[in-house]
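User: Can you help me understand a structure? I only have the sequence.
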Amino acid sequence: MLTLERFVYSFDKNSPPIAHAADGDIVRFITQDCFGNHIKTEADHEDNLDFTHTNPATGPLYIDGAETGDVLAVDILDIQVADQGVMMTLKGYGALWPTCEVRTKIIPIKDGYAHFNDVVWPIDPMIGVIGTAPDGEPVPSGYSFNGGGNMDSRLIKKGATVYFPVRVPGALLAMGDIHATMGDGEVCETGIEIPGEILVRVRIIRNFKLNWPVTETEDFWFVNTNGRTCDIAIRRGYEELQRLVMNAYGWDATDVAFYLSAQENCMGQTKTRYKDFIMQYLTAMDPNQVITTEQVARYVAGRLLQETVMVKKAVNVNMARLEKEGQIMRLTKGVYCRKVKTAFGYYTPDKETLFCKHLLRNENEVIGYETGLSELNRIGLISQMPKKRCIATNLHKKRIPKGMQIEIRKPPIMVNADNFRYLQILDVIRELDMAPVDTAKPVDVVRAVAQEFALETDQLILMARKYYGQKTLVRTIDIMLEGNYEAARG
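Assistant: Let's start by predicting it. Here is the structure, written out as tokens:
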């Protein structure tokens, strides 16, 4: 029998499979608990954890013959668990956190029972994380999505079959995060987290459309969805069930609506939190990178399948809370940077440097360039260090934070990656007369910079004619065509 032990932390179409299985094969998955087996005693707390490496999922397993548009059926044949599990409060999380303290509790498992203080109850092991790879961006295994993931459904246990959409060749099945028992909603954010072994059979159903995973129990079929709110998740479940029943029975939409209204059984559980998605985005960012609420909102909206405008307010509120908690630093309205905890306290990059980056780049898009005396100093035309750094930017209306030695200018035209070097050198040429140039041959310096960035002379002259004054145009022609600039200047 094939046994798998290696694991990943995301559902990713690019993850190399650790093994292959055929249609109908039985496979054993050896799993760690959601904390990666790092919590050994009740003295261990969340400070001992790296939350980018939680919820390990054993796999991925490549199922030979599974193709995009198929469905992968996973029969849960058995779940065996270790002799102890762990529960833990997580700061700021869970419906009852305001009434709780930081605590870790080890739960012994003996003869099929969980022993908690002076009470015991029978265990009912279930799989928290299980799914197939998406065809788009990777999804961390701590999150649910339309291919499965951290669904934390009590129904996914021995005897159930879970059906997953196949969106990439081989499906790339992974699973983990067993709970010995778990209450709906996990009010303290954990069930009895426990390592174990999962025995499954994998089967391929050809050419069958699924938009969400479906769980089959002895008596019912359940669609597993998620959403920004419980209402959205429930509606998505209704819509998928309606579609499936229409296809199975040939009924129209109205008759299926009648049937579901009489027969459906909704088990709502909202696991999605704005703060989770925001922290996921922030921790992936370089501390020396500017973060805007607009960027964060686009990311969160993408994860929740919502329009950006629908999540902006919640993102702004959560970013303000994170600043208050000391996890991020505000540069100006809507602009932040990460604070990184080190052994010597929090590292925070220079605010002024970061704000300048914000004026120069919007993610990977060029929106500004350095100009004025600071640019002349940078390229060696003047030796005097200016008091302020001067930047021409599309964000020229941006308010400069108090105390920063920065001057913002409006560029002649909107700045982009194709034109910013041309605008930069034309600004230099325009300012030569006014600047305290103290190099012997300024023309050679300007010409050398233009050559360094492979600027085309015709394009440079054309832009000078369209966007700059007559003097700048004449000087540009004189310099780039190797005329006597010093004589012209006199």
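Now, to help you interpret it: The longest helix spans residues 230-249. The longest strand covers residues 71-81. Let me know which part you'd like to focus on.
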